[in-house]
Amino acid sequence: MSWPFRTIIEPFKIKVVEPIRFTTREERQVILREARYNMFNIRAQDVLIDLLTDSGTAAMSSEQWAVMMRGDNAYAGSTSFYRFEAVVKELTGYQHIIPTHQGRAAEKILFSLVGGQGKCIPSNTHFDTTRANVEFTGAEAVDLVIPEGKQSQAAHPFKGNMDLHKLERLLAAAKPGQVPLCMVTVTNNSGGGQPVSMHNLRETRKLCQQYGVPLFLDACRFAENAFFIKRREPGYQEKATIDIAKEMFRLSDGCTMSAKKDGLVNIGGFLGMNDSGLAQQARNLLILTEGFPTYGGLAGRDLEAIAQGLHEVLDEDYLTYRLRSVEYLAERLRQIGYPLIEPPGGHAVYIDARMLLPHIPATQFPGQSLCSAFFEYGGIRTVEVGNAMFGRTENGKEIPADMDLVRLAIPRRAYTQSHIDYVVEVAEEIYKNRHALRGFRVVKQAPILRHFTIELEPCD
Ligand code: F0G
Questions:
Q1: Which among 20, 252, 280, 404 could bridge 386 via Cys, Cβ 3.0 to 4.6 Å?
Q2: What rounded mean pLDDT belongs to the chain?
Q3: Does the pTM exceed 0.85?
Q4: What is the rounded CA–CA span in Å between residue 10 and residue 340?
């Protein structure tokens, strides 16, 4: 539907509410200190607006809650499984659909089967759990996003695209069987939630076919990607988003999916594929860790909620509101003067904290400093995607990450425009006082994935 007004309203009304708690700035200073300035250590009850992640944080619809009541929890042959399977098959076209409790469980199974020493898995950009699951098997995870995808200010409508030249070089140089599959992450979360064009997917597919390599999607945010294609790619304006999504899936041979994003649910995922032999092996592994293939670590109600969520997420009124609300937050932050990854992606706005706070050296965690400020000033929880996450120490020396970003991820259907306006007002206040923000030093850290448990203290 075309909307004649400037204000894009939430295409839903609220039936169930969950109170959020106000705290004073003094209380938040204590909370921050006790959390050692690590956002993962803060209790949700102390957060006013939680922009830590868009994963598993969606508000479900009344229809989703309604269908959950009919969830069938039979161990084998659950009716809910067959409903779920039919919906996912219709959407993706894959022969085999294997439910899992979330995205990384699908990744773990897939890469346990196709990974291993000497193998190489290219992607536009592997998400952290995908990379970790590839590397855990001894295989190499290679990121081949186009150069614009790594430059925060570069203008490009599809900054998630695969660099086809680099992919061709990699495939041509590989030994037979060395590349068991190629991944494309839609949208590219680690690169700022940037979409991949259908043209790029098609060309990636051609290359994969030429070299006999299956193509898999990391499909977490497939609906947002499909809607970006509708908006930005010539020839797709008149197509229904659902048909664009179907076309995307049909260019691939399988996918891993975290339904906690575009499945509009709080838990769930799946592994889909056409290869019957591989699917059989995957089901065998599934039984070992997730459960029988007709529930895969989920209750019947979860399967029902995913089936309904996959239908709702392709509603174009929903997607218009979804992309507009992220874009709106980006516009307002840009007006204030915040340097952002441009253009904003589908699920989050990313602030370039290193650029915003040039007086804080990269070794002193400018991203963490901005995250702390968002919490101290307004009770807003964000996440650092920078030095704490990707930097490391070698012989006691801090080797900083390429960028220090702060991600404001927007949970689906959970917050209204006034919540976003409040975030903007807090951001304005921080911007005025940005010169007073201080850096941090590490008190304690783990050797791997340190951002989850890192303890920090402010530099004097
Ligand atoms: N792939 C992508 C692109 C993701 O963004 C995520 C999760 C996963 C795979 C793993 O899925 O969490 O269901 O196991 N991203 C979350 C985030 C955690 O905050 O971006 P999962």
A1: 404
A2: 95
A3: yes
A4: 24
